[in-house]
Design a protein that fits this description.
The chain has 287 residues and is mostly helical. Helix 7 packs antiparallel against helix 12, helix 10 packs antiparallel against helix 11 and helix 11 crosses helix 12. The radius of gyration is 22 Å and the shape is globular. The N and C termini lie far apart (50 Å).
Length: 287
């Protein structure tokens, strides 16, 4: 398992540096603007008061833009679940199904390594990759905060939004991993998980505008994501809920991986009785 863990992290060095450094530099650049905002607060408050509430709905549902926590939430963490969620979904869906479709899985299992060791080696590597990317974002944010006179969030408090984000990424990454064990291909699993992520994000944004939508939003994970506002006070119950659902998806994927037939290569089929036969007949009729 340790060897697979190291291999998973090593083969994702480019992703860690690409995603982590780019988002870290972005967070450093955005945080450095906070002083300008704070110094022009009175003028900007009048300007923002004229903005439609639909705009604020997608950035936490608040026009309190002038506290440091609200600023980093709106400028960075409000959209980060969607941006980094794309990476988590793609990486989660490819952890095992990607090896199968490339023809590597049977070679890996040909070594004295059980399926459980292989599975958790990959999953732990995935978790470390997420933590590495979030650490680079955190460092970028803190470096930008050091250049600010008014950004008075401590190092520990600044890490809390990343914990909230980690729970979201684990949830959708775990969902993509589970779907890759039950759907015919890694591509389809990533598409379904990514679609659910986008729907959750949009519904949560619209929940501030409609009571009916809000009733649906409370059942979706984005409702329990705090983002930058976690720096003001972490809701540990929400965090535990998101982490628990993510871990549940991982365990379901493990259970399925232990019981499924491993593909030698390429994408699989639906394995619905009679479906392939009907498809062949349809093709023959068309010819």
């Amino acid at each position: 398992m340790l060897t697979l863990f190291k291999h998973t992290v090593a083969r994702s060095k480019g992703a860690i540096l690409g995603w982590g450094l780019s988002l870290g530099l972005l967070s450093m650049w955005l945080t450095s603007f906070y002083d300008t905002l704070a110094e022009q607060q009175e003028m900007l408050q009048k300007l923002f008061a004229a903005y439609p509430k639909e705009i604020w709905a997608f950035f936490g549902g608040t026009s309190d833009f002038f506290s440091p926590e609200a600023f980093i939430n709106m400028e960075l963490y409000s959209y980060m679940p969607l941006v980094l969620g794309i990476f988590a979904v793609l990486a989660g869906s490819a952890l095992l199904a990607g090896d199968e479709e490339k023809g590597f899985m049977d070679l890996l299992l040909g070594h004295p390594l059980g399926r459980t060791g292989l599975f958790f080696g990959r999953v732990l590597g995935f978790l470390v990759i997420l933590l590495a990317i979030l650490t680079l974002i955190w460092l970028g944010t803190m470096i930008g905060a050091q250049w600010s006179t008014y950004m008075d969030i401590g190092w520990g408090e600044m890490w809390l939004p990343n914990l909230s984000l980690l729970a979201m990424l684990l949830l959708f990454g775990g969902l993509a991993l589970f779907l890759s064990m039950v759907l015919p291909s890694q591509r389809l699993a990533a598409s379904v998980a990514g679609g659910l992520l986008a729907v959750s994000f949009l519904i949560n944004g619209m929940a501030e505008l409609s009571p009916d939508v809000a009733k649906v939003a409370k059942y979706l994970p984005m409702k329990y994501y705090q983002g930058g506002l976690a720096a003001k006070g972490m809701n540990w119950e929400w965090f535990a809920w998101l982490m628990g659902v993510g871990v549940a998806f991982v365990l379901l994927a493990w259970w399925r991986f232990l019981r499924r037939d491993i593909r030698v290569g390429g994408e699989g089929g639906w394995k619905v009785p009679g479906l392939r036969l009907r498809r062949r007949r349809a093709i023959a009729s068309a010819e």
